[in-house]
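Reviewer 2 asked us to include a model.

Predict the structure of this chain.
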Amino acid sequence: MTAAFAPAATLQGRALAVVEVKTTGAHPARDAIWELAIIQVDAEGCVAERLHWLFEPGVALPSQLLSLSGLHPLELRGQPRIESEAQAIAAAIRGRILVGHNLRFSLAFLRRVLPDWNAQRPQQLCTQRLARAALPELASAGFDALCAHFGITRFFRDRAVPDAEAVLALARHLLQQVAPAALGHQLRSAARPPLLAAERFAQLPERPGVYYFLGDGGAQLYVGKSRNLRRRVMSHFQNDHRDRRSLQMVQQIRDVQVAITAGELGALLFESAEIKRLQPLYNRRLRKQRELLTWALAGEPGDLRIELLQHQALTPGLRQAGLFRSRHHARQWLLEQARQRHLCLRVLGLEEGDGACFAYQLGRCAGACCGEESRQMHDTRLLASVEHLRTQAWPWSGPVALVERDEQHGLTQWHVLDQWRHLGTVDRFERVEPLLAKRRGGFNLDTYHILLSHLRRHPNMEIVLL
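Predicted model (structure tokens):
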């Protein structure tokens, strides 16, 4: 056996498994591992065994990968799939501290194939994060930069075995420069992203609010909300292997900031407003609302007319159905209603022509276009289809404030609302009046759904009429 660490430099006498994976790309759900190396180090600091696998990845190997690694596709022909070796891999790391450089990336792939990952929950030591703690003066904690700094040579680059040997040598150098207390902190913070300072993690409160993930230069990566900020933020770092976007995001996080609210509703409203204001890179939903459309219905069954209008153009008393962010979504919804209820596209204005429509010939229209069905029967079915999408009427005669109280921390907030519009939130009641005077903000679909859902779930919420 080869000595790797002096006994005092081992992790409190724990056995290690140095892990290095090579993948076909950066997407854990689409890409796959084609090479894996594990170096087992015993509790005395000696290398006990070196394990190496080649796998048939089941996906095409990018030409850049072949060039960098020197791999020939024939090397992988006839090799097993990684799933067939999952038990052996799990046994190789069981009971050991996992060591790797940018370890989160490697584990994002391994978690998907190891059968007992959740049961094992091994401690982890990332040499990238360890280097940032031990050598903060270095401009880069990248693998190549650290190998150059310590004079670690690799007889072959971008292959699992030589890179695992280099990680082992790198860990040896770094562990000699880290105090035992700091080392224990590195192990406890295994879920922390490599570029995020430990202090920010420790400061996260267990309170409702909104959190911000920031990248280089304060770039807005993501805005989210939760009733427990600490638990929710940590969940991102435990589940970043589920898709490529979340994995990429976590790798870029440099800082986390939070804004406290008195309760869940405040967090929901503030998150919605902040996403529209900041347009974070990784938020998919709640983008800024460019237009809001609705189907307006005029007349009575037998002479019912339907027209797509801007929501703000609706006149009082006019029937309306649905709130849509685009003309495409509005049209698709009406086409689906026509299909389900045998409505006529020609009568609905979605198709031109005279006489029986094409859908009638296919048995998909009940015949309002050619006299086989009365317009009244057709329009009655149309009204039934839109009933569940009618916008709820504002239940109060004027503006109100919904009150949320965090008694434990002495925080009360008043959410000032009028006609489903969120005029603002204040933490002192005397600040309500200026919000009413300004009356800023138009109708917003996200706010409408947030308020409607919250009021249905909390019918006894404290309400102040203004």
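DSSP finds 17 helices and 16 strands in the chain. Residues 6-10 have pLDDT under 50 and may be disordered. We have added this to the supplementary material.
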